[in-house]
Amino acid sequence: MCINNQIRGVKMKKIIAISLIASSVLFFGGCTTTQKTYGYADVNRAKVVKHGEIVSTRQIEFDGNQGVGTVAGAAAGGVAGYQFGKGKGQVAASVIGALLGAAAGNAMSSNKPGLEILVRQNDGTEIMVTTDQMDFRVGDYVQVIYEGRNVEIRHAPRDYRR
Predict the structure, then answer these.
(1) What residue ranges in 3-133 does DSSP mark as E strands?
(2) Could you point out which of 68, 81, 94, 98 has its C-alpha 20 to 30 Å from the C-alpha of 147?
(3) What DSSP character marks residue 94?
(4) pLDDT tens digits for 77-120?
(5) Residue 112: phi, psi to the nearest 5?
(6) pLDDT tens for each residue of 38-84
(7) Is the torsion defined by CA of 123, 127, 132, 136 positive or negative?
């Protein structure tokens, strides 16, 4: 009877470890979204919208590796690896899990491509905007949306060009 409980305990630890890894992948894999959701604080908030033409673009990279992904991945991998084996095998599994988790966390938080975009607005002023959206080209007509210190750039409707 005692051996059956030990076997059940090992199986349960493996199930928990696999569930932890799977849920982490699903959670972190779903972090990117294109849908804009407004909070209640956005009710009646005004934004200034200007229009202009993109006069230049330059590819850049955003530094996504602040170490958080690597550390979180290592911690999750180490915990998951600890669930396997006993004694030195358990330590080895923890180390391997931590290394694999760190590599996965680092890959998820590595540098991201972006664009530096120079827009000549209709009033003659120019503004430089950085974005992670890669679908802008020289000559595109865009909306420049100001909200406090933040600026967002979007493609203007085709029939809106002035």
Answers:
(1) 48-62, 112-121, 126-131
(2) 68
(3) H
(4) 767 777 776 777 777 777 787 778 777 776 666 678 889 999 99
(5) -115, 140
(6) 787 778 788 899 999 999 999 988 876 656 667 777 777 767 777 77
(7) positive
Among positive and negative, which fits the CA dihedral 86, 87, 93, 98? positive
Chain position carrying tokens 């550390």: 71
Instruction: For residues 135 and 92, give the distance between their C-alpha atoms in angstroms, rounded to a whole number.
Output: 46
Q: What's the whole-model pTM score?
A: 0.52
- Write the CATH number of the domain with boundaries 46-63+112-162: 2.40.50
Q: Are strands 141-147 and 126-131 parallel, antiparallel or unpaired?
A: unpaired
Phi and psi at residue 80, to the nearest 5° = -65, -45
How would you class 158 by CB atoms within 10 Å of its CB: exposed for 0-12, middle for 13-18, buried for 19 or more? exposed
Number of neighbouring beta carbons within 10 Å of residue 92 = 13
- Residue 14 in contact with residue 85, Cβ under 8 Å? no
Virtual torsion, Cα 125, 131, 136, 137, nearest 10 deg: 60
